[in-house]
Amino acid sequence: MKKKILFLFLIGLVLNISAQNINPNKNLKYTITFLEKNPIIDGNILGEKIWENVTQITDLKQIKPDYNSLVSEKTSIRVAHTNKVLYVAVICYDNDPNKIVISDSRRDSDLNDEDSFLFIIDTYKDQQNGFLFGTNANGMEYDAQIDNEGKGNFNANRQQGGVVGGTNINWDASWEVKTEIGEYGWSAEFAIPLRSIRFNNGENKTWGINFQRNISKRSETAYWANLPLGLDLKRLSLAGSLTGINLKSPKNLKIIPYTLIQGINDNLSSTKSKSNAAIGGDIKYSLTPGLTLDLTYNTDFAQVEVDDQQVNLDRFNLFFPEKRPFFLENAGQFSVGSPGEIDLFFSRRIGIGQGGAIVPIIGGSRISGKVGQTNLGLLNMFTDEVELNNGNSIIKNNFNAIRINHDFAKSRSSIGGLIVNRNGIGDNNDYNTVFAVDGKLGLGKKAQISGFLTKSSTPNIDSKDHAFKLLCDYNWNGWNFMAGYTEVGEGFNPEVGFLVRSSFKKTEFRILRQWRPKNTVKFLEVRPHISYRGFRNFSGIQETGFLHIDNHWVWKSGFEIHTGLNFTKETVLSPFSISKLKIDPGIYDHKEFQFVLYTNPNNRVSLRNRSYVGGYFGGSRVSSSNTIALRIGDKFNTETNFNYNYLNLLNGKTNVVIIGNRIAYSFTPRMFLQSLIQYNNVTKIASVNARFGWLNSANTGLFIVFNIVKDSDIFNLYNNQSITVKYTHQFDLIK
Question: What pLDDT digit, counting tens, does each position of 323-339 carry?
Fold first, then answer.
């Protein structure tokens, strides 16, 4: 144990020697312009005189395909403000406007696979946290909160996942953008009300800022503050500076009520059919320029898409991401641990019981934001009692989370603490508490050491209830080195958190090189790398070993293949089952071939494939995960997923199939129709989730949701049906 910590400490010293405090953009500055009157937000920048006297930014540089070359198409960016609104105007010139690609108009859809423009602002100049805004040529609205320079485990597609830190696309602010397409290319005007973001009052303030333009026909990405290979727009410590800001933060009071009616037909229930109605809502109030109070009553998430179906082909816990808006807003504020592996606070434990049972949320409150350079998060929620279909019940519970961490802006460092608590109301012996401290130490702009130490408190558990992690990371100019050690004690029990597996000691490392050979016509880069992770129990037995040797081959068009070998070792101490196949105790050493293929995502039809062929628990496995995406114009998108696993093991054979199809049609950027159809042959459950949304500001509006769940009883056509109509509206009482 001591040797491992010493080893990581020595790695940190080596990284520290090489990680000088270099910022290639430290002299990159732009002075904002104050406007006496508001511009007309219509996307027509060339025809509006108010923009003529605002200084332009034109010198964007490519990160791909031609690193450090000037952007291939002329780009003009202007930034200005009044006392109440921040304005950003961009003209994206294009010598062939007919080739402008608009692939998706749904709010918060991925902008990387089309012609688009994004900008990020670091309003506290802490070089770690900020707000990200973007659009495409059709005026789609994209916004996100950025924590820890975007580091974390997240899914970039709102319709498929949530967030557990890093980039939170489910943060929805009130703002507007308008675009125009013409013979010159396309342009966009952003109007961001200052009450929608947080910042410090004062005169002559400086924010961090950077801009990104994507040009689809060349699969090109260009930035104003240019970045080393391997980094992206969220690397706020390398952003340029926006100077001359004189602002006073406005007050903010918003009331967001909802009303809901629902009809349910459940053939598995004795009541068969029932209907109900509900009202509730949220209140947002700015306590200080940096702190916001959120109150919620009778919280409901009927408009949220259902979970993706998963089948467990291993012996460890499956992870289902959070999708509910109230918990996703400011989610990064409460994120401590190792995302997706050890989450000390996992909000799905609030309001969702075992097996996905819905537990009514009575209400709660949250205070989140920043005081100076200190981040603060306080959460208090109450859930009601509920009777489960299996005859068990869940009593009323109170959940609390307290999170404080302080950023040291110039060093990319921070230190903080977290307390998470659950109390069963009416039972003094039903509780669980987790205490944690965490921090990170920036080693210049290139490297960082991070970690956490935590302990849980649960009745009848009084030993080895600890966990900790230490991680060293170097990322600069195409080189990435990572080494870490994690330990989870046998008694560690975060009941309002998530553990992918319990009781382990984990060692891991990764070495990756991103290399772009010169004088290649269509080929862009290769990314050879090697990684390892090994899990041992507290008896010294290695339960899992995974050595991955791979190379990514990337073309300028966006076509990409990965060719890798995995060397795996699994020690099974107790029998378990995969589908209906029993896995006996034993040591299983195997090798497998891994192949990944991505076609150009800018095309109307694209394919993503990930396949494995090799040994598996004493037998063999053929696994293939496939997604075919189709877009027609800028309104219709569909993805068909086909995941297939064939297992030929010692105790038998089995096929595991999961089929899914997503369809989305955007009538306008704020009106959509979406559906998700799923089936798997293990549980033999087919489901349909269809949603219509007509949005107002900040993702409020009218939602109509239809759900069908069909189990294996072929004589019962619809086992469970529900239709929900929900309307929510935001009243902005202080303007």
Answer: 787 887 778 889 899 98
In the chain, domain spans: 1-19+321-500, 32-247
In whole angstroms, give the CA distance from residue 470 to residue 484.
Answer: 6
**Residues 272, 182: Cα–Cα separation, whole Å:** 57
Q: Locate the DSSP E strands across 574-635.
A: 576-578, 581-583, 586-598, 605-616, 619-632
User: Rounded to whole angstroms, how far apart are CA atoms 474 and 15?
Assistant: 7
CB 480 within 8 A of CB 474: yes
List % helix, strand, coil for the chain (3-state, nearest 5). 5, 55, 40
Report, as ranges of residue numbers, the positions in the chain whose pLDDT lies below 50: 2, 6, 17-19, 153-165
In contact, 543 and 573? CB cutoff 8 Å: yes
**Contact call for residues 616 and 590 (beta carbons, < 8 A):** yes
Name the token pair of 639.
């993805």
Eight-class DSSP state of 697: G
Contacts of 208 (CB under 8 A, 6+ apart): 120, 121, 122, 125, 127, 130, 236, 239, 240, 241, 242
Give dist(CA 73, CA 117) in Å, integer: 13
Residue 156 confidence (pLDDT): 32
- CATH no., domain 32-247: 2.60.40.1190
> Residue with structure tokens 């993503």?
608
Helix (H, G, I), strand (E, B) or coil at 497: coil
